[in-house]
Amino acid sequence: MKRILCITGALAYMLAFGMETATAQVGLDDAIQSVSRNLAPHLGNVRAAVAPIDAGTVGMSNHIMNRLTSVLAGRFSMVERSELDRLFAEQDIQMGERFDEARAVSITRGLGAQFLVLGAFQRIGGFYDFRVRIIDVETHVIVGAYETRVQDSALIRDLLGMDFTTGQRWAAVGMNLVPGLGSFVIMGDTFGGVVQLVVGGAGVGLLIFGLGQGITEEVHDLVWGTTQQEINATGLVGVIAGGALIAGQVVFNLVRSHTYTRPAVRAASVVDPRAWNIGLVPGENGIERVSLSHTLRF
Q1: pLDDT tens string 185-206
Q2: Is residue 130 within 8 Å of 147, Cβ to Cβ?
Q3: Does residue 15 form part of some domain?
């Protein structure tokens, strides 16, 4: 009984700390490759076409269509993408609410294809749901289906238009004239904002200090009764150091604002057996206890 309670408690602990526990997540390219591995071998050497993917943006749809066509070309004889696009455009067949699957199947059949590959790519929480169906264009029967969870990535966010626009990046550059302000407000870039705040702030402080001390100072010669200007080393060093730090912050601002991308949603999985293990080991006075070791991999 104690053993059962210990194991149950350990599993409950792990599930409480797992953020995505239902299904392991894969990369986008791995998910597309899996379509070929899981579906194509069962359908034989046939002619097929890939319809526009319902993915939210044209960029993402085109990316998945191109990769699917390339991957499936090793299994199927694929209809030329440009020809299918032309006919779909002529028939005004689009993804979303206006997509007419029956007409798409009819067009595919007219091109001599036996199967039509349909897909959808949708964000759900911290991951993306990727679904693919293969339809027999003669019988309209689904002859294969595949679904998996895809990890968030910079490529996906870029294709979905979720990353920063050029306007937002230049706005961040402008706001960072107040060191770090644009990074914090527009980009949510804590690291970039802190670096600019520290470097730029120190630069402004040293520059003000140096100017306050003065680059030159008047020196009176008591013997000859003359006055002359000499370099004030403290002030000069302050101005030079401050200017250098400000210049560094400006360069960092330009580079960081144009290269920083929104971070992927962090998700951990405890369903991967490699991430954890449970063992029953002797405890005090011979009483068994559960030893739990796990890693949350991001």
Answers
A1: 998 899 999 999 999 999 999 9
A2: yes
A3: no
